Task: inverse folding
C-alpha cells in the first residue's frame, strides 16, 4: 500500500512516501522517498531524495505555498529522484492537521464536513491549518477521490484532565471552546511508544517527560501512555520559547502594547514571527546559528540560549511535578535530536533528582539512544521524530478498516 504523507509546518512543507505491507513492522521503516520545501527569506529551497540515494536539490523563487507544494508533488514523478510513474499509484494521502479541536480527535477520512471543521479551527493555528487545507485541496484537484486521511496533532492531548485543560479565566471561556488543546501530539505519542520499546518496559508503567524541540517547541507529561499535561495550549504559541514564537508571556504586556497603539495583527506578527530565538538574538531562529554565535562571544546570542534553557528547565520540572517523578526524559525533533549543548544544559540542573548524562554519549549522533550514565536514576533518551511514519501507520489502519467494512457490506445477503 503506497501512502503519501503531507506535513505542513510553520516554515516548511514536507512529504514522505511509504509502501506498507501486512503485517506492519513494530518500528519505523525508511521512506521510499521524502521531500521538503523550506522558505528561506525570498528563496524557496526544494530537496528530495529516494531510497536509492538519488537527490534533487533546487533553489527557486517559487511564489506562495500552494505553488511550492505542487512542485514537491511533481518531484514524485519527475526529475532525478522520482519514484512513481504517476500519482495514480498512490493508495492513500495522509495529512498532519495541527488543530482538530475537541470534536476531531481520531484519525479520520477527509470529507467536506471534516474540511469545514478544520477550517473553523484555523484561527487557533493560523500558521498551519490553512496550509494543510491547501494541501488537501491540491490533492483533490490532482487525484480526484483518492482516500485522504487527517491525523490530528491535538488528538493525543484531547483527554487532558480538566485541571490541566481549563484556563483560570471566566468559566464562559470553556463553554466557548477556550481551553488547552496541546500540539505536537503525533510525535509525543510516538515517542512514548518508542521509549517503552527502548526501555523494554510496559507503557502503562512509565512516567515520561517528552521534549519536542524544533522551530516549534513543546513538552508533554505522559503517564501510562496518556498525555496528562503539556505546555502548548489554546494555540501553538503558549509555553516554551521557540524559533520565532515567544511562548508564554505576561498578558499584561499585550494589553499595554494595545494601549500604545499596536493592533491585534501587529501582536500576532510580533509573537509568532519576530520573537523567540530570532527576536532575542537578532540573528536567527536556528539554534545552530545561535550556539555558534554564542561561542564566538555574541552577547545577544548567549542571552537567547540562556532564556531558552531557563524556560526549558522550568517546563521539565513542572511536567515532572505533575507526574510525581519521571522514569525517562526524552529529547526529540530538530534541536532535541541534534543539539548536544541544549541537552547538556537542560539536564545539568536535575542532578538533585539523580539524573546524570554521559558527556561522551551526549556527543554521539545517529540512531535512537540512551545518553544517561549507567547509574542515573532517570533515563535520558534521544528519539528521532517520526511524525510522517506515525501518520502513515494511521492511514494504513484506516484504509484496512475501510476495506474490511466494504467487504462485509458486499458479503451481507
Result:
Amino acid at each position: 500500500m503506497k501512502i503519501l504523507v503531507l506535513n505542513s509546518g510553520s516554515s516548511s512543507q514536507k512529504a514522505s512516501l511509504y509502501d506498507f505491507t501486512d503485517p506492519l513492522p513494530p518500528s519505523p521503516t525508511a521512506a521510499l522517498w521524502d521531500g521538503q520545501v523550506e522558505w528561506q527569506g525570498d528563496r524557496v529551497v526544494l530537496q528530495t531524495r529516494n531510497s536509492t540515494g538519488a537527490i534533487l536539490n533546487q533553489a527557486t523563487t517559487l511564489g506562495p505555498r500552494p505553488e511550492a507544494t505542487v512542485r514537491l508533488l511533481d518531484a514524485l514523478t519527475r526529475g532525478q529522484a522520482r519514484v512513481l510513474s504517476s500519482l495514480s499509484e498512490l493508495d492513500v494521502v495522509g495529512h498532519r492537521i495541527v488543530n482538530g479541536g475537541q470534536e476531531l480527535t481520531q484519525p479520520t477520512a477527509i470529507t467536506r464536513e471534516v474540511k469545514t471543521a478544520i477550517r473553523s479551527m484555523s484561527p487557533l493555528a493560523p500558521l498551519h491549518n490553512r496550509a494543510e487545507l491547501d494541501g488537501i485541496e491540491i490533492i483533490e484537484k490532482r487525484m480526484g477521490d483518492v482516500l485522504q486521511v487527517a491525523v490530528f496533532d491535538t488528538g493525543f492531548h484531547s483527554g487532558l484532565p480538566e485541571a490541566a485543560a481549563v484556563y483560570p479565566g471566566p468559566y464562559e471561556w470553556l463553554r466557548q471552546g477556550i481551553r488547552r488543546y496541546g500540539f505536537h501530539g503525533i510525535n509525543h505519542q510516538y515517542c512514548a511508544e518508542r521509549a517503552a520499546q527502548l526501555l523494554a518496559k510496559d507503557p502503562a508503567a512509565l512516567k515520561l517527560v517528552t521534549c519536542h524541540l524544533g522551530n516549534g517547541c513543546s513538552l508533554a507529561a505522559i503517564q501510562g501512555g496518556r498525555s496528562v499535561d503539556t505546555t502548548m495550549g489554546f494555540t501553538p504559541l503558549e509555553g516554551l520559547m521557540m524559533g520565532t514564537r515567544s511562548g508564554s508571556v505576561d498578558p499584561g504586556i499585550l494589553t499595554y502594547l494595545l494601549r500604545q497603539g499596536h493592533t491585534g495583527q501587529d501582536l500576532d506578527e510580533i509573537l509568532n514571527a519576530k520573537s523567540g530565538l530570532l527576536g532575542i538574538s537578532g540573528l536567527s531562529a536556528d539554534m545552530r546559528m545561535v550556539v555558534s554565535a554564542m561561542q564566538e562571544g555574541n552577547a545577544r546570542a548567549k542571552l537567547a540560549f540562556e532564556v531558552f534553557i531557563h524556560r526549558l528547565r522550568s517546563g521539565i520540572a513542572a511536567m515532572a511535578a505533575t507526574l510525581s517523578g519521571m522514569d525517562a526524559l526524552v529529547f526529540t525533533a530538530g534541536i532535541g535530536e541534534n543539539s548536544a549543548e541544549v541537552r547538556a544544559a537542560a539536564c545539568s540542573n536535575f542532578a538533585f533528582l539523580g539524573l546524570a548524562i554521559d558527556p561522551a554519549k551526549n556527543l554521539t549522533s545517529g540512531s535512537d539512544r540512551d545518553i544517561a550514565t549507567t547509574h542515573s536514576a532517570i533515563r535520558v533518551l534521544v528519539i528521532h521524530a517520526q511524525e510522517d511514519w506515525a501518520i502513515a501507520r494511521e492511514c494504513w489502519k484506516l484504509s484496512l478498516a475501510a476495506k474490511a467494512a466494504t467487504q462485509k457490506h458486499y458479503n451481507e445477503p
Observations:
- The longest strand covers residues 12-19.
- The radius of gyration is 21 Å.
- DSSP finds 15 helices and 14 strands in the chain.
